[in-house]
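notes to self, project folder thing:

trying the whole complex as one job this time. last attempt i did each chain seperately and stitching them together was a nightmare. two parts in total, labels are on each line so i dont mix them up again. if this works i'll redo the older ones the same way
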Amino acid sequence: MDLYTEGNPVTDTRAPDGPIEGRWDSRRFNAKLVNPANRRKLTVIVVGTGLAGGSAAATLAEQGYRVRSYCYQDSPRRAHSIAAQGGINAAKNYRNDGDSVHRLFYDTVKGGDFRSRESNVHRLAEVSVNIIDQCVAQGVPFAREYGGLLDTRSFGGAQVQRTFYARGQTGQQLLLGAYQALERQVGLGNVEMNTRHEMLELIVVDGRARGIVVRDLVTGEITTEFADAVVLASGGYGNVFYLSTNAKGCNVTATWRAHRQGAYFANPCYTQIHPTCIPVSGDHQSKLTLMSESLRNDGRVWVPKAEGDDRDPREIPEDERDYYLERIYPSFGNLVPRDIASRAAKNVCDEGRGVGPTRLGVYLDFADAIQRLGRKSIEAKYGNLFEMYERITGEDPYEVPMRIYPAVHYTMGGLWVDYDLQATIPGLFVIGEANFSDHGANRLGASALMQGLADGYFVLPNTIANYLAAGPFEKLEPSHPAAVEARRTVEDRIHRLLSVDGDRTVDSFHRELGQIMWEHCGMERSAAGLRKAVDEIRALREEFWQRVRIVGDADGLNQSLEKAGRVADFFELAELMCIDALHREESCGGHFRAEHQSPDGEAQRDDERFAYVAAWEYGSEQPVLHKEDLTFEYVHPTQRSYK
Amino acid sequence: MNLTLRIWRQTGPEDKGRMVTYPVEDISPDMSFLEMLDVLNERLTLAGEEPVAFDHDCREGICGMCGMMINGNAHGPQRGTTACQLHMRQFTDGETIDIEPWRARAFPVVKDLVVNRNAFDQIIAGGGFVTAPTGSAPEAHAAPVAKADADAAFESAACIGCGACVAACPNGSGMLFTAAKVTQLSLLPQGQPERYTRVIGMVDSHDDAGFGGCTNAGECTVVCPKGIPLHTIGRLNRDYLAATAKHTGRS
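result (full assembly):
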């Protein structure tokens, strides 16, 4: 293709072999260790304080390393993991319903549409049980049964009840657990916490990641910070679509800057569109709000059978309703995985059967559940979600069915990492949503919290020692040429942004970029649309650098300047996402190509040609594709069926 | 809707600050309060004026980053609602709305509506945790927790750390925030070993960070977007009294 070139394959040299059940043990045994006395001589920078970054920083500090932690928010507790609602998966099998490590592994590989690594996913399933123990020990108030034991519920893509939860605020409670562990280490002097600081460049010295350039968002001061290793836990890039369920500040800058320095970016086109979000209400919309997947345990999804049926939903009789998920997917029903539920909603809306003022919506109806279980029981399970829905829409979901529509929620792609979670730049580790490794082309519900905490509490603290054992590395000063250059790149860019002094706001560009991405690189993609998108993104990016207007200067808090830097990086990422989506001539998970579907409209994979990870190397002219072949020894790839 | 906004503008910690009036037009009742401020900021930017700085992130009422006094109420007129979840349908056409930052000694103003709330992190670092280093946890079902205790712990744990309680308190006290964490952890078996050192450590940190004392005015609980009840402070006081009686960990 004319948009990229292909380079050598990339291989995961850290992946152990042998029986899959023993691989993590074997890697831990073979990895080098750092003795406790030497740990205090080693410094690790951790960027981001969500589930992955917060848990990693706390754990590394507990082990005795010196940790420097950074976040753009005013407190580490604000990271967007806090907004995760539904729950966290773990193969505890407390329900005695046939769950096991192997089943969680199997469900996750299948749910990811056979585009993830078996070894990584198996490790994730293994440590899932330790996560629950750890969080309970921290005082995380999980939901409990009357006997005092932990309660669980079902999530999409699974036929067992393995999801642990804390009402509709599971992410909040898990994050606060990690945050408290982190603050304990801050109090002990083992972690230096830097809030309202944004990483704007990675410092690479002699081929190793050795530090970052940060801007103090309050004073505007730019400094170079050094360490023996750098961990990026900066989250996903869903905000490239402007409208998403991500927090307003979520951005790709940390990982994109590392990508420009040589770290490969894997599978950027794998985007998760969550089926149950509150529909857009107007042009002023600044973000979208998720209604937890757990609602599909009790809510039934439907649209009218007839096109353009404008009646009050309560007046539409049963036989004129189409409970389309139950009809098309009788065995999983309303709990099909997210990619499938989203596309089904899009299809019924495309048929003209969508509901609400924009006709981009479907009903999520609790009338049956309220009748069966009583209003009180529904309130206890979902009260906070129902209240939030009412505050936003002005409608009472106990009386009128909710209206929902898919929205961008999570990005499975991210920086390429090996089994040790190390990127292609030695000394750079990437954890949580910021990496690509465990969810393949589609993430199952309640697996993001599991992966973030698995990486931060249990995986990285073991694997990073293997790298740090070679340290401490040469002490660096801000005057080191690599640091000076990285710093200059940051300063030049800020200067350039401020000196445009044009006539359009940052948000107006971001909104327009989001529209291009949603239309052409959203729920359904086509070759023609993606090519058009690449042209449109390039033109818009050029216009951005000529017309953007940022009022104020760089010497203090300037929120427009912060946004502008993030949007500038989104432009570059957006182009790579479209190229990745264009080159992947198959449909898998969240990546649906209109040209590749079965006669009944299901995603059609092409394992012959595309059973690989697409790891992209930055090129100033064109990106370079490196393929990592995926092999499946334990879960045989099949056409995913939830029927 | 057309509205008149009177907004606190302050260029930095040293600036005295002042209220500035801005008319805004064509506001949809479906907008959130922060989306209404977005509209104003877009307009200010195009006119070459600095947009109003305000904190916000998740915009779904859970991160605790947003917070401002709206017509003298922390987070505005709707109970149990953060500023980001407040919608313009709560206001009437033609209304004048005053918008100011949190005001408290422990929360110095950074710029416009943005304040520094690091003092909350200091309170947590002072003891708001269970010491359970990674890897040391027993099996999750080793200690059952009565459902009533788990539910009550959850209610206190729902605190989002926004600081509305401090802004509403006539003394600028952070006692509701502190008590919420003390209550959560003292209701759970995992929190027992450090129960008394925790309460002393947190209250000491609270006082050191510049918060005022609690006089049971109760304003905090009225504005709390998560409905943390006043009796959590009663529980803190009981634990604190017991702790000082035991002389546990008192330095």
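what i see at first glance: The mean pLDDT of chain B is 96.
need to look closer tmrw
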